[in-house]
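Appendix B. Chain record.
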Amino acid sequence: MATVNGVPASVAQVTALALTNYGHFTTLRVEDGAVRGLSLHLDRLVRDCSAVFGAELDPERVLAYVREAAGGRPGPLTVRVTVFDPDLDITRPAERADPHVLVTTRPAGTLFPPPLRVTARPYRRDAAGVKHVALFGQLALRRAARLAGFDDVLFTEAGGTQAGGTQGGGTQGGDLVSEGCTWNVGFVDADGRVVWPEAEVLPGVTMRLLQEARPGAVVRPVRTAELAAMRAVFATNTAIGVRAVHDVDGLRFPDDDPVLAELRAAYLAVPADRP
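Structure tokens predicted for this chain:
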């Protein structure tokens, strides 16, 4: 199902998005008619609309379209809200924008799917703080990882040896770890503390909910050379919740660390809001 501004999407509108590939989005998981982190998703859409189009976006308008698309549908749903301008001219992208709201729905998968086996590759997304629709670079690396026998890819950035970040961390060698292909990555250190990498990443809604629900985590640079000292690794996004990573380029990690169970319980306890 796909609607644009609350009515069925036309071929011309979808074609315009496919040909220009310029816009931004967020993805909601709707369960029993409610969404965890709904206000954060709306804040993201408003913020990114200003960054991408220089335009304001009415969150109440977005909510109305989501209600119409998801209302009364059984089972958990994945609802993607994409903001784009079907009249955008790629030769004159600075013209005043008229952002439209595309809402698509599909059945959602199970939360907390099986553990991931990933490979680390250097990559930084364009405008990393914006959840934009330009996914070619990261999906090309995901494809290469899967062809090589992995489940997904973990991004790193080249960096020399330096002191740790805002909340401690020592001097480490190796590249900086940033994020996964379409997910944030987190770690459990030897003392059982949750560590989030300090890097240019998309601030995921699930990551932010976990930071609020389970305070006391450390945010600091994490380098590839120190992964072997980590107790556990996990991935987070709206679709998967908290998913264990049990292998990073041959480094094995348990998928049953008790901190992962605590994180999942904390996530499930986050109150959900109705659109």
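Further analysis of this model is presented in Appendix C.
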